[in-house]
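idk why but the lab printer keeps eating my pages so im just putting this in chat instead. protein + DP6:
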Amino acid sequence: MSDRSQRTATCTANSNIAFIKYWGDRDPCLRIPVNSSLSMNLEGLTTRTRVTFDPKLAGDQLTLEDQPVTGEALARVSAFLDRVRQMAGISLFAEVRSSNNFPMGAGIASSASAFAALSLAAAHAAGIALGEKDLSRLARTGSGSACRSVPAGFVEWQAGESDEDSFAFSIAPPDHWDIVDNVVIVSQAHKTIGSTEGHALALTSPLQTARVADAPRRLALCRRAICERDFEAFADMVELDSNLMHAVIMTSTPPILYWQPPTLAVIHAVQAWRRQGWPVCYTIDAGPNVHVISLSAHADRVAQELSGISGVSKVLTARPGRAARVDEDY
Ligand code: DP6
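predcted complex ->
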């Protein structure tokens, strides 16, 4: 690509929900995690991003939801674009315009869909052809969980030990298992302590070593449950893994408590439904919202009951989602 021409690309990526969580880095700069993780892409909960490398620009520009953004968020995007520029051998600055169709910073992984969409759009606009593995590696350097939004369906992120071997791949396509994520929004406020800061605190919890040591076992059981479509075994691992991550979070120095009263009300409701034999379980990311996973045949009833819980403002539903993609029609 010539350094004098303008090049643009628009891409869309889904958010994802981790069943086995990423919490803590072995290398925070490259975002090499301390444990492998497992997730599902969320169809319809998307970020759409347009990247334009433009010789007329004197610096990178970032617009989120039609609002110009500077400061830390722009610096993070700019550092990421430096990596792409280096790979492509170009020095042009870029205009990045991005929008989500879900609330940012409240426990739906907006950084995952954001950096997956940005990776694909930036690579495409810069004229570098990356396969899924290398795209996933690139996305990981922007936000760890973003590497899992690159491949389709049910996705494993192999922790690896270096930039080369830390990437995500699909373990089953979206149509493998008809489950639904009922995303229970209890607060749309931006979270006070972001994941990046949280990862850095993980080892201050005496529980992190035990959580990480047992992670391969949980991941193997969860992977098997997904492959065999065994909801009971899946539910046990998903709830255990979420509880372990929040135990670490609550016992870090300083401690963090992401849960709000309605978060707990939803956990209790899900536990009661499970006791009654409903195929349902909960998992919570770094925020107060609860992801209630159910078999799709039960999703309408689950979503209806969840909407009736005091403090619940909205329930979004998402099925297993597609891979990150270039918007050809743009
Ligand atoms: C709780 O990927 O958001 O959602 O790499 O610093 O951007 P950064 O962290 P991020 O961490 C995700 C944490 C989590 C669990 C998960 O998605 O695995």
